[in-house]
């Protein structure tokens, strides 16, 4: 017998997938929902407990200091940055600069004017790719890229005839550095890679990649969406020339923040022109960084929040954060592998991955599983292709998609266990 709550979840799910009387999707349980039995009585009281496991999309919650910093700025400072000489405006300037300095410490960037604020990593990648690549350039990338990398590359393939070599990742494996080395040609102008897949969690061998790129004098662009704030990233040690980051995932800041580090000497064309708060008589964009790329009023509130988040990360220590993440990842791998009928994609070793897990449970559609986890168990996960269809081609799930489970810094082993209990309950009936 179904609990009222679970019955409601399945009914609502099935109703949601009907349009004008036409059934768009029929889940495994749609025709025989009876198979899903009542949840054990002891879970009933816990139904309303929310377990957020969608940190790969955006992290939640944020450190308390982030909420406080944004609130303080909006309530008590409020002025724009780089635009005025009165005390509050200078205070806003100071806060923006402080965030730049903190990011500089996090990524080991000495000259922080080379850090450009953007609204997210998508904007950073667009700026790097469209600002750097020219007609006919050759680029090497991977099969695990997010659409934020893939789509701008495809546009440039059409509009600027760039040639793209895509390194394979069969079954979601990391790229092979030797293969990368073999693909570098005299005309290769950029290696553009994600550091970790947002579908399989696979970590790319960035250190080896950086060394190869340096040896062949090819700049390296890295999408750190799934690793910044979670994995130690030192641009000098890893030989990264263009580091694209987003502020709202592992960096624990608010949405609408991100950035791009541009190594000195790399010629990038700005994609927007406008006010920079100074040198107003110039008819062209100032040459100096960051103004060359930061036309328009900055997201000061967001940048202030990001600063508080990075401060939190530096206080904890990114090495410690990675260790914590690895322990949670190892526990999740162990728990998930015990669920009957569960397919887990990507590396099975915590050392080779981040805490992003794509799964499927028998033949249950990912959308249905995510819906039931949310409605009946209060567990929030994401279903679908996660904006990275190429990665799904590697693991054979491009038609079906996966359920993505992504714990974050504030998740606990107990929450992972609750997920595994829920999955076991679902599959056993
Ligand atoms: C690997 C990767 N790249 C890029 C992005 C895009 O991030 P944003 O939406 O913050 O630009 C994501 C987010 O899902 C991601 O996981």
Describe the structure concisely.
With 429 residues, the chain is of the alpha/beta class.
Task: Tell me what you see in this structure.
This protein is α/β, with parallel strands linked by helices and 429 residues long. It has two domains: 4-55 and 318-427, Alpha-Beta Complex (Aspartate Aminotransferase, domain 1), CATH 3.90.1150; 64-316, Type I PLP-dependent aspartate aminotransferase-like (Major domain) (Aspartate Aminotransferase, domain 2), CATH 3.40.640.10. It is built from 14 helices and 15 strands. It has helices at residues 4-16, 41-44, 64-77, 87-107, 121-132, 147-159, 177-183, 206-215, 235-238, 300-316, 318-337, 366-377, 389-395, 413-427, and strands spanning 18-19, 22-23, 51-52, 115-118, 138-142, 163-167, 188-194, 220-223, 242-246, 258-262, 342-345, 357-361, 379-380, 382-384, 402-405. Strands 4-10-9-8-7-5-6 form a seven-stranded mixed sheet, sandwiched between helices. A four-stranded antiparallel sheet has the order 11-12-15-14, covered by helices on one side. A two-stranded antiparallel sheet has the order 1-2. Helix 1 packs antiparallel against helix 12 (366-377), helix 5 runs parallel beside helix 6 and helix 10 (300-316) crosses helix 11. Mean pLDDT is 91; it is low at 17-43.
């Amino acid at each position: 017998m179904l609990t009222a709550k679970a019955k409601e979840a399945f009914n609502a799910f099935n109703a949601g997938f009907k349009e004008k009387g036409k059934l768009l999707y029929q889940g495994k349980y749609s025709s025989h929902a009876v198979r899903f039995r009542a949840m054990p009585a002891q879970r009933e009281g816990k139904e309303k407990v929310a377990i957020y496991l969608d940190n790969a999309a955006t992290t939640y919650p944020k450190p308390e200091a982030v909420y406080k910093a944004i609130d303080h700025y909006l309530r008590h400072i409020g002025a724009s940055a780089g635009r005025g000489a009165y005390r509050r405006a200078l205070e806003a300037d100071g806060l923006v600069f402080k965030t730049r300095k903190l990011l500089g410490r996090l990524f080991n960037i000495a000259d922080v004017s080379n850090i450009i604020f953007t609204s997210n990593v998508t904007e950073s990648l667009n700026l790097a790719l469209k600002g750097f690549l020219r007609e006919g350039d050759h680029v090497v990338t991977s099969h695990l890229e997010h659409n934020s990398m893939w789509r701008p590359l495809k546009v440039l393939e059409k509009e600027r005839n760039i040639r793209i070599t895509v390194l394979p990742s069969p079954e979601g494996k990391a790229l092979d550095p030797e293969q990368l080395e073999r693909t570098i040609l005299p005309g290769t102008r950029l290696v553009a890679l994600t550091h970790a897949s947002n579908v399989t969690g696979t970590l790319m061998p960035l250190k080896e990649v950086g060394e190869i790129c340096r040896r062949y004098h090819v700049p390296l662009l890295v999408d750190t969406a799934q690793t910044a704030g979670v994995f130690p990233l030192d641009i000098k040690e890893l030989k990264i020339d263009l580091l694209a980051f987003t502020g709202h995932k592992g960096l624990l800041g608010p949405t609408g923040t991100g950035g791009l580090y541009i190594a000195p000497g790399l010629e990038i064309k700005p994609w927007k022109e406008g006010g920079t708060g100074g040198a107003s008589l110039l008819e062209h964009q100032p040459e100096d960084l960051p103004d060359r790329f930061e036309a328009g009023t900055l997201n000061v509130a967001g940048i202030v929040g990001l600063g508080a988040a990075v401060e939190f990360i530096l206080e904890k220590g990114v090495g410690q954060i990675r260790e914590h993440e690895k322990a949670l990842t190892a526990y999740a791998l162990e728990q998930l592998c015990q669920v009957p009928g569960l397919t887990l994609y990507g590396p099975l070793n915590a050392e080779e991955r981040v805490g992003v897990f794509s799964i499927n449970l028998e033949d249950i559609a990912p959308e249905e599983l995510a819906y039931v986890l949310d409605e009946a168990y209060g567990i929030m996960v994401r279903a679908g292709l996660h904006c990275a269809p190429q990665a799904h081609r590697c693991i054979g799930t491009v038609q079906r998609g996966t359920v993505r489970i992504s714990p974050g810094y504030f998740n606990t082993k107990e929450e992972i266990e609750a997920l595994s209990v829920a999955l076991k309950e679902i599959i056993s009936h």
